[in-house]
Amino acid sequence: LSCQVPVVATNVGSVSESVINQWNGFTFPSGDERELVDRVVQLLTDRDMNIELGQNGREHVIRNGSLDN
Q1: Which of 25, 29, 45, 68 lies 20 to 30 Å from 8, alpha-carbon distance?
Q2: pLDDT tens-digit readout, 42-63
Q3: Distance CA 54, CA 59 (A)
Q4: In whole angstroms, what is the distance from residue 60 CA to residue 65 CA?
């Protein structure tokens, strides 16, 4: 996220605290390989979405990633 790269991750544990689905990346249920492939392809083919989600991810880290939080 801090490198302005959208994240695609399974929605397990505390992942959803950092990866906000469709805002700075995508989360999907564990074991849903089709969703993983669909989201990666979406990011590879939609440059504007890739950039927007990446920028949102960086902003999320700046606002919430401090060790002081």
Answers
A1: 68
A2: 999 999 999 999 999 999 999 9
A3: 9
A4: 7
DSSP track, 9-59: EE--TTHHHH--BTTTEEEE-TT-HHHHHHHHHHHHH-HHHHHHHHHHHHH
Tokens representing 65 are: 């990633």
pTM over 0.85, yes/no: yes
Which phi and psi angles does 6 have, rounded to 5°?
-60, 145
Query: Rounded to the nearest 10 degrees, how much is the dihedral formed by the CA atoms of 40, 65, 17, 9?
Result: 20
| Collapsed DSSP state (helix, strand, coil) of residue 63 | helix
Residues 6+ apart with CB under 8 A from 60: 1, 18, 20, 23, 24
